[in-house]
Design goal:
The protein contains 38 helices and 4 strands. By secondary structure, the chain is mainly α. It is 65% helix and 1% strand. Helix 12 runs antiparallel to helix 13, helix 28 packs parallel to helix 30 and helix 32 runs parallel beside helix 34. Strand 1 and strand 2 form a beta hairpin. The strands form 2 sheets. The chain has a two-stranded antiparallel ribbon with strand order 1-2. Strands 3-4 form a two-stranded antiparallel sheet.
Length: 705
């Protein structure tokens, strides 16, 4: 390994440390000196591997170990040597370690993987603070890759905060836009660190925001970080001022090679060949991670900070995002798509205007941005309904320009943008997506993407069911890697609701049981059950599985027996027995659907109402109402409201039951009305679809009770 760049004295000092007595995330730290030397190698490949190995073990997930603290003197020495090939990365590593130390409790004792106690974060922070004077020199370095992390380090670690502010202010006139924005942000960071400089720093930021001689990006940064310093003084004029500055930003004003937005089309254009034996869904997920966190405009981080400061001021944030999505700078527009997704995903309100603006980013000439817009609209279903026509127009334009085979276009960005638009259109239940979905299923390219959304096109079940049934018949259930595909196919067939799928599902049950793919078998049994008596021919397959050893399969088969033949006397005892298993939710739900004929289960359900686990109480209460009716109402309402208060993830099930109760749910009205006043999304997983369903249930209850 070529270590010629590392000074001989440094090598001797590194080798003189007892690294073996320390540990990192994966064991003894005896490999740390090799990584430190590798970071200074003349070979780029060696350097990359050394940084990666160090971060994965000695700084694992931000951890600070004794060996991390012991590495700091050598990292500082490397960063300070002009001979080090990649000084910026070394300073970036120092910055990362220091940030983590600042976030850790200085009084806390942390335990290492081997069980030993450590306060290495305190030692590390002291080591960085003791050498922080060097950041003053680094911020003036001719190499911007050194200057940029050094600017942030100066703001975080220099003890003399007044001097830090003076040095930072002196840097403002000479840098490019990205660097000037970093300077402004770091001044605010120093102000938040030390009350002694807070007033002067905030005053400087306020003056800078009003200095029309500055670039609009810099004035916007000053405005945002002034608000960040004094969030309690956020007036009504701040957002309109920010909107005005965004309007002044043009792509040309980000000029200079150092400040160009990272569009990175080339990084994603080639695609990645699927790995053998790895489900395509997994491959795609890892490909998507490559673009996670990519920033396309210099102003993105400061606008994200502004949205954080604005918090629950949804109307003002919406106005800000509307301007971002309409910006003349394509990088600003692109990054606004993600910010809009986060706002709509977390907060309630009328988001139709933002949805329309996101749909406006579906531009045939910009497949990169179109893909992001279409994918975001898919994530926002059902509130992305206002984008329906724009999505349909984009899909049609792509087929007109690239031909009917555009789903499998060779250019990856065109293909991805088209597929995402088709998928979102399908999720909205729009049959204009059907030709593309059928093309994908017939040709086979990325067919799994079409399968995932096919179930939403119930009006085309006659076209889709035979194709999906054929795919399901071709699944090799002995290959566990195909389970994701099998589940997607079963789910789609169930959603389509076409009884013609029942034979294929029955065959899948048999094959999955044979290969002990229990969850797949249970999923197929539930799909069969959804067809009711129309799938009664499959009783010979279902009935033996009601005695299956696997509880999940046994519960699904028992539920299917009820749906297929309706024999309450035969299934209620089995369901009561299942109430004592982890499938008690499925058993309780079926008992509720059976209704009064499930009365023998009432004593067991009443006992479950006293369970310690709130979900168990919710399952029992809902079934108790569905079986016992009005007589059980007081206890049911009390139990549901208590569980809801303990865990708002139960809210969808709670409100669904309250909605069924009609006027008997009247005691719940205060809590239901309170829910409708909340700004944040609620519901299970706080997903958009669950929250929209929850709000609809609340409104129905207020009318019906």
């Amino acid at each position: 390994m070529p270590f010629g760049i590392v000074p001989r004295m440094m090598i001797n000092e590194i080798d003189g440390v007892d690294w073996g007595s320390m540990g990192h995330a994966y064991g003894p730290a005896s490999d740390v000196p090799g990584w430190l030397k590798g970071m200074a190698s003349a070979d780029p490949g060696v350097r990359e591997e050394a940084f990666s190995d160090f971060c994965n073990a000695a700084h694992h997930q931000g951890g600070v170990y004794p060996c991390t603290a012991a590495s700091l003197p050598f990292l500082f020495e490397m960063a300070d040597s002009p001979a080090t090939p990649d000084r910026g990365s070394v300073i970036g590593l120092l910055l990362s370690i220091g940030r983590e130390c600042l976030d850790m409790d200085p009084e806390a004792v942390y335990f290492m993987p081997d069980g030993t106690e450590s306060r290495a974060h305190v030692d590390a922070l002291a080591a960085i603070g003791g050498r922080a004077e060097v950041f003053v020199r680094w911020v003036a370095d001719p190499d911007q890759e050194v200057r940029r992390p050094a600017i942030e380090g100066l703001g975080l670690f220099l003890h003399d905060t007044a001097r830090a502010v003076d040095v930072l202010r002196g840097l403002l006139p000479g840098g490019g836009v990205v660097e000037r924005l970093l300077v402004v942000r770091t001044v605010a960071t120093v102000a938040l660190r030390d009350a002694a400089v807070h007033g002067a720093a905030a005053g400087w930021l306020e003056a800078l925001a009003g200095d029309t001689a500055q670039a609009p990006e810099v004035r916007l940064a000053a405005l945002v970080h002034r608000a960040r310093c004094t969030p309690g003084e956020l007036g009504e004029a701040v957002v309109p001022a920010a909107v005005g500055l965004i309007r002044e930003i043009t792509p040309e004003e980000t000029g200079g090679d150092d400040d160009k937005p990272c569009r990175a089309e080339a990084d994603v254009a080639a695609g990645t060949a699927p790995s053998s034996g790895v489900p395509p869904q997994i491959v795609a997920a890892f490909e998507d991670l490559d673009g996670h966190g990519r920033v396309h405009a210099p102003t993105t981080s400061l606008l994200e900070a502004f949205h954080t400061v604005l918090g629950d001021r949804v109307l003002e944030r919406t106005a800000l995002l509307a301007e971002q999505l309409s910006s003349a700078d394509p990088g600003v527009r692109y990054d606004a798509i993600r910010m809009a997704k986060e706002l709509v995903g977390r907060w309630r309100g009328d988001h139709s205007g933002l949805v329309v603006l996101i749909a406006g980013c579906l531009l045939p000439e910009d497949a990169y941005t179109s893909a992001a817009a279409a994918e975001t609209l898919g994530a926002l279903v059902p509130v992305s309904e206002p984008a329906r026509e724009a999505l349909a127009a984009y899909v049609e334009a792509a087929r007109a320009e690239h031909g009917p085979g555009v789903w499998a276009a060779r250019e990856r960005l065109v293909r991805r943008a088209h597929q995402e638009a088709v998928r979102t259109l399908a999720c909205l239940g729009d049959l204009r997506a059907l030709p593309c979905v059928l093309e994908a299923l017939d040709e086979g390219t990325d067919a799994w993407r079409a399968v995932q959304v096919a179930g939403h096109l119930g009006g085309a079940a006659g076209d889709l069911t035979p194709r999906l049934s054929k795919f399901l018949a071709e699944v090799d259930f002995s290959d566990a890697s195909q389970s994701m595909s099998a589940h997607a196919l079963v789910s789609a067939l169930r959603e389509l609701g076409d009884p013609a799928a029942a034979p294929a599902l029955a065959t899948a049950v048999v094959a999955a049981v044979r290969e002990e793919q229990w969850h797949t078998a249970a999923s197929a049994l539930k799909a069969l059950a959804s067809f009711g008596p129309g799938a009664a021919f499959a009783l010979d397959v279902v009935r033996p599985l009601a005695d299956a050893q696997d509880v999940t399969v046994r519960a699904a088969a028992t539920a299917a027996l009820w749906e297929l033949e309706g024999d309450a006397a035969g299934v209620v005892p089995r369901l009561v027995e299942l109430l004592g298993t982890h499938e008690n939710d499925e058993a309780a739900a079926v008992l509720g659907r059976i209704g009064q004929a499930a009365a023998p289960a009432l004593p067991r359900l009443r006992k479950m109402m006293a369970a310690g686990y709130e979900w168990t109480r919710v399952y029992a209460a809902a079934a108790l109402w569905d079986i016992g009716g009005e007589a059980e109402a007081p206890a049911v309402v009390e139990t549901l409201l208590t569980a809801w208060a303990e865990n708002d993830a139960t809210s969808n099930r709670v409100l669904a039951c309250l909605n069924r109760m009609g006027s008997a749910a009247r005691p719940a009205l205060p809590q239901v009305r309170k829910e409708l006043t909340l700004l944040r999304r609620s519901g299970r997983f706080r997903s958009i679809s669950n929250d929209e369903e929850l709000q609809a249930a609340c409104r129905a209850i207020t009318v019906g009770a």
